Amino acid sequence: MTATDGLIAKSASVDKVNLLGLSRQQLEDFFLDLGEKRFRAQQVMKWMHHQGVLDFDAMSNLGKGLREKLADIAIIAPPVIAEQQDSSDGTRKWAIRVEGGALVEAVLIPESGRATLCVSSQVGCSLDCKFCSTGKQGFQRDLTAAEIIGQVWLAIDSYAGWQSGKGRVVTNVVMMGMGEPLLNFDNVVAAMDLMTDDLAYGLSKRKVTLSTSGVVPALDRLAEFTDVSLAISLHAPNDELRSRIVPINRRYPIQRLLKSARDYLDAQSDRKRVVTIEYTLMAGVNDQTEHARELCGLLKDYPCKINLIPFNDFPNSGFSRPSGNAVSRFWQILVDAGFIVTVRSTRGDDIDAACGQLVGEVVDRTRRSERYRESYAAGFAASGDERS
Ligand code: SAH
Ligand code: SF4
Question: Which end of the chain is more exposed for a tag (fewer CB within 10 A), N or C?
């Protein structure tokens, strides 16, 4: 079964409910509403998420009547791969066409013993961070839960990975593709439910990471719905600088954000967990020794580890990547202060170079926004500790 089959099913069935994006609870409710037993949800989940089956007719443990009923009212439709590219280092990138024609990207970075999938949550983004090309695109729309979990489905399908039971093609997921996950709260939560549900992809909560630039009211209620790992896009050690490059800081300043993230950790039973602090280094903007020292003070005693991301450039960005020396100097100051610090490395460079030429202008814009995410997620894949 391929993604194209999903497209055909979708186009033939406008008002049908797409079961791919329903959490276990939602799918159980769906079957109860049909007058069916709850366990039907578990059977169908296994077909969709463990076996990659999209066709109700192939679900041999459902009676014929139920299969026909399902075919009448529902579909199982992942989004469609518009283009796939393989890097010489094993990174694989998909341009994914979602309903309405927009393109988003997902990137899989294999590492020894694991593979991290970087997933998008929105088409574009409304938050306008100054150094982010998705921000420059503006917001187009939220992805549905099916479109978000569909990226995981497609990645496994692309490697014919269904034979491995729960699809171990993907071992880690980072919500670091296009968009701000906390501005698409319900769909992201439903998709993350599926990522961590044994009847779907069965990933440990430590291996699914939500990254946010700081939508504090949504972060404040996140713990009621999930317990995945959390990353915060900080990028500056003080409000004055952060407000300039991450505009949402003007509404929810650093201390509010750090408190909200700490409350999220405190709501977990596992006391050893930490917040990942993401810090994109931009030459002359936030990469000076005084910034590093100020960051040490800001995060003193805060339960975190720090990921430094050398800025990935895109046309007319107005920013540039610091030298290797500047990155090392910044890193050393944090390490000397006792922090656990990783620096992102670049992956998939060769496919970056080709991607924009493949599917026209829209992907070209998408591509720029995703370039850094490849290297960024690669860094996540490469970093040890709790995500291993
Ligand atoms: N919207 C969410 C998740 C997607 S962005 C967030 O902002 O956290 C994933 C990470 O890439 C964020 O830390 C983001 O700030 C960072 N990033 C954005 N543009 C970048 C660039 N050009 N170079 C390096 N990192 C960038
Ligand atoms: Fe949106 Fe994240 Fe880009 Fe900011 S960095 S504009 S929140 S995608």
Answer: C
Q: Is 125 in the pocket of ligand 2 (CB under 6 A)?
A: yes
Q: How far apart are CA 154 and CA 108, in angstroms?
A: 11
Most ligand 1 atoms within 8 A of CB, residue of 128, 132, 210 to mutate: 132
Please give the distance, rounded to the nearest whole angstrom, from the Cα atom of residue 40 to the centre of ligand 2: 39
Which CATH architecture group holds 80-363? Alpha-Beta Barrel (3.20)
Q: Measured in angstroms, how far is the CA atom of residue 132 from the centroid of ligand 2?
A: 6
pLDDT in tens, 131-161: 998 888 899 999 999 999 999 999 999 987 7
Q: Where are the domains of the chain?
A: 7-75, 80-363
Cα–Cα distance for residue pair 261/257, rounded to 1 Å: 6
**Measured from the CB, is residue 311 less than 6 Å from ligand 1?**
yes
CATH number of 7-75: 1.10.150.530
Compute the distance between CA of residue 277 and CA of residue 308 in angstroms, rounded to an integer: 8
CB 27 near ligand 2, within 6 Å? no
- Contact 213 CB / ligand 2 (< 6 Å): yes
Cα–Cα dist 289/31, whole Å: 59
Cα-to-centroid distance, 204 and ligand 1 (Å)? 23
**Digit-coded pLDDT (tens) for 325-382:** 999 999 999 999 999 999 986 666 555 422 222 223 333 334 434 444 444 454 554 4
Catalytic positions: 105, 355
